[in-house]
Amino acid sequence: MLVGVLWPVYRLEVSSEGRPDAFLSLPVSSGDRFSIRFLHSYDRAFFQENYSIGSDSKILLRDMTFQSHLNGGGFAYPNFHLRADGVGELRDINEARKKIQFMMGSRDLANHKLIFKGKTFHLSDGIEPFEIVEIKLKKRTVLWDLFEKVTSSL
């Protein structure tokens, strides 16, 4: 029984760099997938980064999909594919990261969202424009996770 309550669990935490409390904290397991979706700054088309939780407790950038025309630039990346519907894909990136960081855009221009298990979370609901968003895994124990649930409901 004691071993079970000390077993590690992981949470995906979204916060503004330098703030002590997370804006969003979601329970995750190895293999879970999530996406960051936003409107690109210069052509206002969607851009989506697709991630998964690795078995080594790291965040894995799997691939990217986008409608962006990239000012006519294009990619030299070997796994770039253009779908029939005009959406570009960068496939097989598979880059491990300890955390994800980016500057928060305004809701009316960038509209950053985190998509996880069919739910969409608008990051601008808790993070101001120009703040640095930080997304990382936080290791807890089952006992600590239970303690936080109980104390947050008080």
Shape: globular
| Main beta-sheet annotation | 8 strands, antiparallel
The end-to-end span amounts to: 26 Å
Estimated structural class: mainly beta
- Number of helical elements: 2
Strand composition percent: 35-45%
Find the count of extended strands (DSSP E, 2+ residues): 12
- Helix fraction by DSSP (H/I, runs of at least 4): under 10%
Describe the structure.
The protein is mainly beta. The protein is built from two helices and twelve strands, in the order αββββββββββββα. The strands form two sheets. Strands 3, 4, 5, 6, 7, 8, 10 and 11 form an eight-stranded antiparallel β-sheet that branches. A four-stranded antiparallel β-sheet has the order 2-1-12-9.
Question: What is the structure about, briefly put?
Answer:
With 154 residues, this protein is mainly beta. The protein is built from 2 helices and 12 strands, in the order αββββββββββββα.
List strands and helices in order, with pairings.
Elements: H1 2-5, E1 8-16, E2 24-28, E3 33-39, E4 46-53, E5 59-66, E6 80-82, E7 88-90, E8 95-97, E9 99-103, E10 113-116, E11 119-122, E12 132-141, H2 142-152
Antiparallel strand pairs: 1-2, 1-12, 3-4, 3-10, 4-5, 5-7, 5-8, 6-7, 9-12, 10-11
